[in-house]
């Protein structure tokens, strides 16, 4: 059902994104309150549709109370209804909607909507997006406010140009689209922050792992997944090597 799952993920991510754009354009809310309302509306839409379309699957959402029921499921939808709530509330474009499907712990299928860019781009795991050609020093995506120490170490060693950006999904999709080469994060994330982005990135042939090189696993009891590396394959070994030198693996969860 991979093709149908991917089509559903893309449909839901795109529609949630349109709902969020419409909400922001109405101007009824601002700032933090706008972000909270956006989270609520997008989450309600996604949960209702997933329960209707895939009633036998588990669901894990940032905006819904978690239960142990999903742990017994092979197929679990992992969603972030509004990734980059702060950017969304500030009127910025670098926010996203994540709809991912983990099968037996692996991010197999997903879609990431970028409603603030290009009239509502949706990147998906079953359709390859064109990549912008680039021939220059590697570009590394980092947090707008708190770049990770490991990312800065890698950037210094590899001579990267730093590119600040908001949501995790927006950063991961920038690598998919060829707008950057490396996204390394170690400041703390949860499964919903990267399941859908990893599914899309893997489908596009990118390297995806923890920053110690280990596999990213989903549908865990503890949903904390603090770090990841998404990059073009030619930079993976070097980036992981720098991290290994600067951060002993015993410190990574």
UniProtKB/TrEMBL annotation:
Mg(2+) binds at residues 62, 80, 82-83, 193. One of its GO terms (molecular function) is metal ion binding. Keywords: Magnesium, Metal-binding. This is 3'(2'),5'-bisphosphate nucleotidase CysQ. Pfam families: Inositol_P. Its cofactor is Mg(2+). The keyword Hydrolase does not apply. One of its GO terms (biological process) is 3'-phosphoadenosine 5'-phosphosulfate metabolic process. It comes from the Bacteria. The lineage of its organism: Bacteria, Pseudomonadati, Pseudomonadota, Alphaproteobacteria, Sphingomonadales.
